[in-house]
Amino acid sequence: MAKSLSVVLLACALALLASSMASAAIVEHSLYIKNLTVNHLCHDQVVVSANGSLPGPTIRVHEGDTLVVHVLNQSPYNITIHWHGIFQLLSAWSDGPEYVTQCPIRPGHSYTYRFNITGQEGTLWWHAHSSFLRATVHGALIIYPRSNPLKPHSYPKPHPYPFPTPYKEVPIVLGEWWNANVIDVVNKAMSSGAAPNISDAFTINGKVGDFYPCSKHDIYRLKVVRGKTYMLRIINAALNNQLFFKIANHTLTVVAVDASYTDPYITDVVVVAPGQTADVLFTANQTVGSYYMAAHPYVSGVRVPFDNTTTRGIIVYNGSTSSSTPVEAVLPAFNDTPAAHKFYTNLTGLARGPHWVRVPLHVDKHMFVTFGLSLDSCRSGNGTCQGPLGQRLSANMNNQSFVLPHTLSMLQAHVFNVSGVYTADFPDRPLEFDYTNPSLSFNQSYLFAPKGTKVSKLKYNQVVEIVLQNTALIVVENHPIHLHGFNFHVLAQGFGNYNDLRERKKFNLVNPQIRNTISVPVGGWAVIRFQANNPGMWLMHCHLDTHLPWGLATAFEVENGHTPLSTLPPPPKDYPKC
């Protein structure tokens, strides 16, 4: 009997192994980074694109697959590609941030990114991580549940999600458009010390919509069948703006954010910060006709210039006439912080759902990280700069303004023990002051942050809790903070200065939302917790594209574990040279 049971168990184990191997595939793509001429707003503009399209190609994989992407740089600029939200377990060399995990791919050169999709499913995205090129070099990255071993390449997934299977799935990539070369835009800002020029338009799947000049036909249309339910995979690929999104006369049900399932949340408006994603269901249950979908900025900063335009697309029911006027979508006011905060704080994680990770209850390392704008001394030849107080705009975390190296990637320096590239002395706590008091916005005692490349060293598997605290320096605004290499639990968020005695009682340790990018409330704070189970060098930064070159960033140096499965391998042979 015992021998018979052993044979059965062995047969089951072999069948499980075979199924796992059969269900994992190698998915291979090539991205050709090259110039493309695009016409928007009565204007031809040369932009950098991937494969001659904007947005770039949607990449589809299943959980468990290995993704191999050959990037060939045929553009005139250095570039890297970041796989936003992918864990990169033991593949940190493929994470992509310039000079953090790799040196840039030079014009005329190539690099192959290779990594496994482990323990993730949902909507993520890929984008350039060099200068402002993210504006036009980006695309959706959709991870389906692990495939049926009998049909390893079937799309969409061959078995249900933890919610009713939609009739159709549609990526909705929200972008930002300049009638200018975005490299010139950022170079002018960095040279003058001022903020960059604001964008000229927003886009839905590369179309600006009919609110703009010369754009009556430059609009995205989605045809739907009445009575069917659709899943929109919404991605905010804009550089510098959070966005409200709405469909006229339709309710939306959020079922996932940042490729992590949520309890279903019914709403009429979705808010996504740069870098964030949201999977939402909507049922075409209205009278046959046309309905606008629309997006415009959520802007929390007072007296901050911004692009106050609206992009629109059209939901077109089968059977509607071409002459029907679409129903208007009424978005919240640009500064509707209560609407944005309601959305962000009402989301909860789908506990016990696919890939759910419980909140680690024991914390090994506590950090308190303030962040916001600051100033750098003017070094202009004529002695004046165009930033506040005649200085240069800068940014900081814990009064340290981050500077990227240029001689070697930080990951190389970490793995090969090269000194002089960075220091592991990023402070766990900030200089103390009344962080969110607007009367201190231009107090020069706090405005100037020293430049440097400082990281925080973590032991493998340490559990880290971080209080992320906005400040009122220069301007009071909301900041999206993105952590590479990990997801994190969002335990709580609120306004004002964080008070541990008061706020810790509000922590959600049961079913908090899980994210890779958190929109920290304007003049407020958020508390996140993650386990450092991924060796490498992992950037944490503001996902507004001006703020990284200004210095609103730091990085975590995670040591190897004590087994081969917790040790980062050496770089690939085609790893770019600096």
TrEMBL record:
Which E.C. number(s) belong to this protein? 1.10.3.2
Q: Does the keyword Protease apply?
A: no
Q: Which is a GO BP term held by this UniProt record?
A: lignin catabolic process
| Domain Plastocyanin-like per the UniProt entry, residue ranges | 34-147, 169-320, 428-561
Identify the GO cellular component terms for this protein: apoplast
Q: Which GO terms describe its molecular function?
A: copper ion binding; hydroquinone:oxygen oxidoreductase activity
Instruction: Write down how the cofactor binds this protein.
Output: Binds 4 Cu cations per monomer.
Q: Which reaction does it catalyse?
A: 4 hydroquinone + O2 = 4 benzosemiquinone + 2 H2O
The UniProt entry lists the main location of this chain as: secreted
State the signal peptide span. 1-24
Report the cofactors: Cu cation
Localization, per the record, is: Secreted, Extracellular space, Apoplast
List the keywords (alphabetical). Answer: Apoplast, Copper, Glycoprotein, Lignin degradation, Metal-binding, Oxidoreductase, Repeat, Secreted, Signal
**Which family, according to UniProt?**
Belongs to the multicopper oxidase family.
User: Which purpose does this protein serve, as stated in its record?
Assistant: Lignin degradation and detoxification of lignin-derived products.
Record protein name field? Laccase
| Source organism per UniProt | Parasponia andersonii (Sponia andersonii)
